[in-house]
Structure formats: structure tokens, C-alpha cells
Description:
This protein is mainly β. The chain contains no helices and 23 strands.
Amino acid sequence: MFVTDTAGNLYPDNIRVLNRSGKWTFAEISLSDGDKGIYAYYPYNPSFSGGKMGLDARSQTDYLYSERTMVSGNAPSASITLYHLLSKVTFRMPAAVTAVRVADYSYSASYSLLTGSLEIKPEKGTISSGTGSLLLYPGDSPAMHVALVAGGHPYDFVMPATAFRSGKEYVYTLKTAGNGVEIEDITITGWQPGGNYEGTITEKEQERQ
Length: 209
């Protein structure tokens, strides 16, 4: 997590938080010199700095973030809510989808916990998953060529341009049409929350475009 002082200035240390035997442990944060703002994220990366997370869609990591939580000498405990940063896209067919791939995707990005801004970088490559779902960046997405495997058979189709929102799951129901597939239905739901973590840190959906 990252910590700011009363004026909003960022402390240089990127603090690792661990859960050991049901107790959260981390480096001591002094509250004697004023209130502090806490910005939590997952997964921890010691190379992150400046309140920013480095993202790589090729890893298909479920990145989580929190909004600012204030702590003080009078209120030193923090209850932190984590939100899904990415959008989940799921493909369904009569036969189980066991692999999904998108080529020429801008996979590299950075996210500022302090400002809530997402910067997608120009590097492009292939992202893939061994399930029927992909994790994509939120925001306006152009039409994409999707290759998938269902019931052991390869299929290709073009997913139309979409304005994805973080914390949402987009479910594409597909049907076979000749040698290809067509979109039969699209539903948008809240990404399934991950539940409560030891009563103090919870994971929820939140829209962020």
C-alpha cells in the first residue's frame, strides 16, 4: 500500500501488508505527526512507486485497488475495501470454452491510485487464457479479433467495439454458424465479489471507466 501525509504528499515507501495467523502485519506507520491517507492495492509489487501500479494484461492478473482511507491517532484502524480494476469478459458456447486468445492488444498500462487515472501504453502483443474468460482494461475498446477453443474445436469471431467498465463482467453467448460463430446474446453483470477477508478488507465491484 501507499501512504500520504495530511497535505496529500506521498511517502516514498511502498509498504507490504501480510496476513499472518489472522492478523494483518506491516511496517509501522507513525500517526504522531498528523493524519495519514492509505491507498491499498493487490498484488503487492516492491517496484511500484509514485502511487502507481504497473499493469500487464498478458499475466491475466486480477488487479485490485482501494480508494483513500484516512487514519489518525484517534482512529488508527482502517477498514479497506478493494475493487476490481479490470473488466472480465466471458465467452459461453454449448460446448465448454477452454481457451481464448486476442492478438495485437495493448497489454501494458499504469494505474494511479492517487488520481484514479489509467494510462494504456502503445506496446502490443497477444493475451490469452486457459479458461473461457479474459481480463481486459476498462475504457473504450475497438473491435477485436478473438480466437477460442470450445469442445476441442477452434473458432474465430470479431468482438464489436465496447465501452468496458471496471468491476463488470461481460458475458458473450455464442452460437455456431457454418464454420464460425455468431454472437447470440450479451449480458453485463457485476463481477462476483470475492467476499470478506478477515473482517477488515473486502473485495467489491465498482465501476470505473
